[in-house]
Amino acid sequence: MRGSSQLSALRDPRGGRRRGALLLLASLLVAAAPVTPPPAAATPPAPSPVTVAAEVDTTRLTLGDTVTLTVRVDHDPAVEPILPEARLDLPDGIEQAGFARTTTPDPNGHTVERLVWQLRAWQVGRFTLPSVVVTYLDADHQEQRTASRTIDIEVVSVRATEDEPPRPMTDPVPLPVNWRLVAMVAGFAVLLAAGLVAGITAWRRRPRKQPPPPPPTPPDQVALEALLRLAHSDALAEGDAERVATRLSAITRHYLEHRLTFPALESTTREVEQWLTSCDEVTTEMRATLLDLLFATDRVKFAQGWATVDELTAQIDRAKEAVTQLGGG
Questions:
Q1: pTM of the model
Q2: For the chain, how many helices (H) and strands (E)?
Q3: In sequence order, which residues have a C-beta less than 8 Å from that of residue 210 and are 6 or more positions away?
Q4: Between 20 and 30 A from 254 (CA), which of 17, 134, 149, 195?
Q5: What is the tens place of the pLDDT at every residue in 110-150?
Q6: Which element (helix H / strand E) includes 113?
Q7: Where are the alpha helices (DSSP H) in 80-216?
């Protein structure tokens, strides 16, 4: 029965037409299926506006020698980084002997800050010079930090030198030998050499008095110097209210963070207001001046506010007055 039905289907022309129609419908459905486009390529991250690079003039030195650590800070002129203190946190056995700072324009339009430390080695071994951290504000007015790489150096006691060429040998002349005197001289020489070696070793290992580190720059002085630079900046002269307000807010918050030891740079203005309310060192008048200053800069930064050069200059003067009063000056 089954074989006969299959034979009748093959003989029936209508069955062939139905199968052809089904195949045509399937091909049309496949052609109309949506094509998924390939994923778009990821957008590369924007380059950092501040780069920090460190290098030394040598990685191998002897006791008492100096090594020069140079840190290059390359940044856009519109970005004002907060550079580290002159005193480095060095490992035991390495001391700081000097510091210098220079600022030069770059042919590409950037500004290059060079920080140069002179370091002296007083112990033998391998040491790691720390990285140097630089803080700045990005395009979204958020605090960012970038750092240089650490550098390994080696301190040895004596440098390796080439051996002297051998001297020509001649036949010895036989002489009478007083072996008793030779033994006495040799024993005395051994004792003298041992005492000399022990004395040199004790002298090298004696505790050395480290020079006291220079006192850190007071935060009041740092803030007043930054405000003075802002008052004579191109941004203020050009009337760029957003740049001036951003920099003024950063200087004020940086001062409050180091003067009153709370994270003002990472806090909102409302959080700063709550903290100043509970701070005994801040009077009601100083708190009102600081909050009015921060809210005014927020209106310019975030609400697209507008301010004249005279208004910006007045805000800078108010910030100077607040720093002077809070610092007890």
A1: 0.38
A2: 9, 9
A3: 95
A4: 149
A5: 788 888 989 998 888 999 999 888 888 776 777 788 888 99
A6: strand 111-121
A7: 179-205
